[in-house]
Amino acid sequence: MPHTLSRFDNELNELHQLINTMFKITRKNIKQSLASIFDVDVEMAKRVIERDDVVNTLELRIDELARTLIIQFQPAASDLRTVFSATKIVTDLERMSDLATKLAQNALEMDGFIPRKSTSVPIMREILLTQVKNTRKAFINNDVLLAKKVIEQDKLLDDSYENCQRVLLTRMAEDPASISHSIALTNIAKVIERIGDHAVNIAEMIIYASSSHEVRHLSIEELNDVLDDEDE
Amino acid sequence: MSKPKISVSDLKLWYGDHETLHGIDVDFEAKKVTALIGPSGCGKSTLLRCLNRMNDRIVGCRIEGSVLLDGKDINAPDVDVVQLRTHVGMVFQKPNPFPKSIYENIIYAPQIHGMVDKQGMDELVETALRKASIWDEVKDKLHEPGTALSGGQQQRLCIARTIAVKPDVILMDEPCSALDPIATAKIEELIDELKQDFTIIMVTHNMQQAARVSDNTAFFYMGNLIEFGETSTLFSQPQQQQTEDYITGRFG
Question: What is the nearest CA distance from B208 to chain A, expressed in angstroms?
Answer without folding.
Answer: 8
